[in-house]
Amino acid sequence: MTQAKLQSEALAALQDKIQLIKTGKGAIYLVGPIRLPVNLYGETVVFQWYCWLNCDEVTEDFQRIIDKLSAVNLAELQQSSVLVYGDFQYGDDAIMRMHSICHTGDIFGSKRCDCGFQLKQSMKMIVDHGTGALFYLANHEGRGIGLFSKAMAYILQEQGYDTVEANEKLGFVDDARNYDDAISVLKALRSKPVTLMTNNPRKLEALKKSGLPVSGRKPLWGDVSEYNEKYLQTKINRSGHLKEDEQGEVSND
């Protein structure tokens, strides 16, 4: 079978699973939904998974995009994704989280942060609630400074600097994350209000500025230990994160 024939068959299978989202910088190509059974605290839960790719080219000829994939080493360029549970598009009451990738916490279970706990706990909260989505943002490692820089920041933290000071010593701002792409994908998946699971008021502000209706906020604190207590206090004292009993501003006026 010729390569052209193989690609044609691939396009036929993928055509209805690819969505074009135009942005000011080009386009986002959203692939999904894909049935994804997940082991969540010992139980199998079925989510619907999406993944997206940023591209300069804006085209509805998806074969052109497929043709480019083999020429680009996408394995070295992480792509973000979304886990959806229940009727996220049309359900009246949905909760969601924008989760920044944490290689050490999410994968290795590091106790230096609370990221691994927040990832699993937010998934459980979505399932318990019945409708929701988890956005997993791959370009947010170390609050946007990248994994290698995060490793160097960890060394500085071991010398007594807090998280903010370590990032600044390396020439970075406290938080370099951008939520524009995630918000574009969210708008493609849902237009009704969402309740955001976060302790970070900047995430609330990003949604609010985009015009998305936010109906509330759920705090996500937990897994506090001797290893991350200073890190968590720095989030509150230096980065403006809300304490568990603070509500935050959710008005869309």
Estimated radius of gyration: 19 Å
The CATH top-level class label of one domain: Alpha Beta
- The CATH superfamily of one domain turns out to be GTP cyclohydrolase II
Poorly predicted regions: 248-253
Please state the second-level CATH architecture of one domain: 3-Layer(aba) Sandwich
Tell me the β content. Answer: 15-25%
CATH topology of one domain: Rossmann fold
The biggest sheet, with number of strands, parallel, antiparallel or mixed sense and barrel status, is: 8 strands, mixed
The N- to C-terminal Cα distance equals 58 Å
Secondary structure tally, helices? 10
Number of strands: 8
What is the arithmetic mean of pLDDT?
Answer: 85
Categorize the overall geometry.
globular
**Overall helicity:** 25-40%
Identify the notable features of this structure and list them briefly.
single chain, 253 residues, alpha/beta, Rossmann fold, 8-stranded mixed sheet, 36% helix, disordered C terminus
List the helices and strands and how they pair.
Elements lengths: L2 H12 L3 E6 L2 E15 L2 E13 L6 H8 L11 E5 L9 E6 L2 H5 L7 H15 L2 E6 L3 H4 L2 H11 L5 H7 L10 H10 L4 E4 L3 H9 L4 E5 L10 H9 L16
Parallel strand pairs: 5-6, 5-7, 7-8
Antiparallel strand pairs: 1-2, 2-3, 3-4, 4-6
Helix pairs in contact: 6-7
Descriptive overview:
It is a single chain. This protein is α/β, with parallel strands linked by helices and about 250 residues long. Helix content is about 35%, strand content about 25%. Residues about 250-253 have low confidence and may be disordered. Helix 6 (about 145-155) packs across helix 7. It has helices spanning about 5-15, 60-70, 105, 115-130, 140-145, 145-155, 165-170, 180-190, 200-210, 230-235, and strands at about 20-25, 25-40, 45-55, 80-85, 95-100, 130-135, 195, 215-220. A hairpin with a 2-residue loop joins strand 1 and strand 2 (about 25-40). An 8-stranded mixed sheet has the order 1-2-3-4-6-5-7-8, sandwiched between helices.
